[in-house]
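tool_call: predict_structure(chain=1)
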Amino acid sequence: MPDEPELLVLDARGADPDAEIRALHARGPASRVDILGVTAWSVSEPTLLKRLLSSPDVSKDARQHWPRFAEVSGSWPLALWVSVKNMFTAYGGEHRRLRRQVAPAFAPRRVAALTGTVEALVSGLLDGLAATAPGETVDLRERFAYPLPIQVISHLMGLPPDQREGFRGVVDGVFATTLTPEEAAANTARLYAVLDRLIAARRAAPGEDMTSLLIAARDEEGGESALSDEELRDTLLLMVSAGYETTVNLIDQAVTALLTHPDQLALVRAGRAGWADVVEETLRLRPAIKHLPLRFAVRDIPLPDGQVIAAGEAILASYAAANRHPGRHGERTGVFDLTRTAPGPEHLAFGHGAHYCLGAPLARLEAVTALRALFARFPDIELAVPTSELELVPSLITYGHRHLPVRLRPAV
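tool_result:
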C-alpha cells in the first residue's frame, strides 16, 4: 500500500494563495491538510465539494460529530469557528430552527428595500472622497470598502455609532489566523463584550432592527423554537461578522481586478458586460473566503479516487481552489474574464446547500452599487502602487488586501 502523502500545511498568513491553490489541485479532489495544527480534508474539486456541502453525511456541529472538539476547543486559535452556537455550526433540525429566526431579514423584498439606503451611504462616502486633491493617494479599502459594509450592517442590526469602531477591530480578529491561542481567546472575550453592549442597548431602546426583533422573539415568545441567550448572542456574532468582513473583501478585490485589467473595465463601460458580471467573476477568482472551517463527516464517506473520509474527521471547504479548478475553465481558470460562460453556477463563494449564505443578495447589492457609483464618480481612478506592492491580509481564511492605495484623479 503506498505511503500516505505528507500533510500540506496551510500558510497561516495566506501569503501566496495562488501557489497554495495549485498545490491543492495537484493533490487531487480532496487531500489532508494541516490548518493551524488541526488535520482536515481540504476539498478543492467543485463537483465533489458541492456534493459534500449538500450531503446529510456532513455536519457543521463539532460538539456532536467531531471527537476532537473538547480537546481542540480550548487551545486552537480558530476555536470560535467551531464552538459558537448558531446556524453556522448547527446540523439538521437545529440548523433549520436557527436559520428560520434570521431568514426573514434577508428575504428578497427586505433586501430590495435596502437599495435606497445603500445608495445613500455610497453617495455619502464618495462625497467625502471627492475632497481628495488631484494626484493624492487614498486608501480605498480604509475609506470606502470598510465603512460601507459597516454602515449597512449597523443599519440592519441597530449597532449604535459609538460601538462601530470597536466592533470592526474585534471582527478583524475573528478572521485573523496569525493570533496565538491566548490572543484569539482575548479577542473573543472583547467580541462578546461588544455584543453584550449591543443587546443591552437594543433592550433598553428597541427599534425595527434585526437585533431588536431577535431579542423580542427571545424574551416574549419562549417555547422550543426560541433562541437561548447563548444562541441569541452567537447569532448576532454571525450576522455582524459575516455581513461585514466578506463584503469589504469583495469590494476591495473587484476594484483591484478592474484597475489591473483595463480591457475588462472597458467592456463594462462599453455595455458589453455589467457590474453584476464584475461581482460574479470577482467572487469566482478572488472569493472573500478562501477556506471555511470546518465541517465533519457523520459517517465514512468514500471519495471518487478511492480515499475515504472517516466518520468524525474534519473537512475544510476550500472555496478559492474549487472556484479555480482547471476542470471547469482549463488554462484560463486564473484569468479575470467578464465574458466567461459555462453551464451552471460559476463559483461556490457563498457556499452551497443548506448553509448557503443568507446574506449573498445583500453583499451583491452593496458591491454592485459601490462599483457602479465609484467608477462613475471617478472615471480616471488608478492604482497608486504596482500590483506587486499590494499586501494581502495575513489570513488563511479571508482574501483581501491590507490597503488599497489609489489615485482618484490624475495629478494636474
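agent: The mean pLDDT is 91. Proceeding to next step.
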